[in-house]
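From: lab user (bench 3)
To: helpdesk
Subject: output format question, protein + coenzyme A

Hello, I'm new to running complex predictions and I'm not sure whether the block I got back is the full result or only part of it. Here's what I submitted:
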Amino acid sequence: MGRKNTKAKDKLLRKKEEKAVLEKHAALVESANSQVDPLSSFSAFKKFTKNGLNLDLECKPVGLIDDETLEAMFNLEKNNMKSFYDDCSWGWNDKKKKAEMCEESARYLIARDQEGTPVAFSHFRFDLDYGDPVLYCYELQLVESVRRKGLGKFMMQILELFAFSANLHKVILTILKHNPGATEFYKALKYELDETSPQEGVFEEECHYEILSKLNKKIYN
Ligand SMILES: CC(C)(COP(=O)(O)OP(=O)(O)OC[C@H]1O[C@@H](n2cnc3c(N)ncnc32)[C@H](O)[C@@H]1OP(=O)(O)O)[C@@H](O)C(=O)NCCC(=O)NCCS
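Helpdesk reply: Thanks, we reran it on our side. This is the complete output you should expect:
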């Protein structure tokens, strides 16, 4: 009888602790989401002038982005990624991708040239992922002419700054294994296989994607 009681108490205590942790994590995400423009705190990152590029960066929730910019970002996404999607079970679907890109929680980091044309963007969200508070990078897309000039790295550094200054636990993203450019890029930036990435052998067919992350050193040391 006595033992049962202790077990029940331990279970209750564990449940309470888990609930408190989840509430703390949800509060971190809510606080990150309360910022309209997280880039406003990092004005040194509003310009990228390197390797012949002269770009202006801005950060906005999807609801504040004009239709022309949304259309340009969708076209860039499709141009870069359609063939990769079509080469695996995901398949490309205009409607589905547009819906994902316009979900209310979507935020964008956008780089424009001096004519105002978007030449790169990242779609990201502040969210809970398996209970962890994270910045999820849904997309990082650059037009071909601005690649290999350090812009992708610069934009990921900005996302890391957003995440870690808000005490989120990691920056996380999904890559397609048959996209070697992206694989090499994230390897160079020291992203590693996340604990939530599908394990080899769990799926009947080989899984065509991996989940990578960079952990917040203040949390995981
Ligand atoms: C992947 C991508 C975002 C990289 O951005 P980028 O600005 O070209 O990359 P950077 O110049 O910042 O590269 C940083 C380092 O990553 C590595 N790297 C980047 N692209 C690479 C590639 N295609 N092949 C091998 N290594 C690469 C290099 O080590 C590079 O450093 P170096 O140029 O000094 O050698 C960009 O090429 C892109 O938009 N590709 C098409 C869309 C895509 O695949 N997006 C990722 C979806 S998950």
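A quick orientation on your result: Residues 2-33 form the longest helix (32 residues). Let us know if anything else is unclear.
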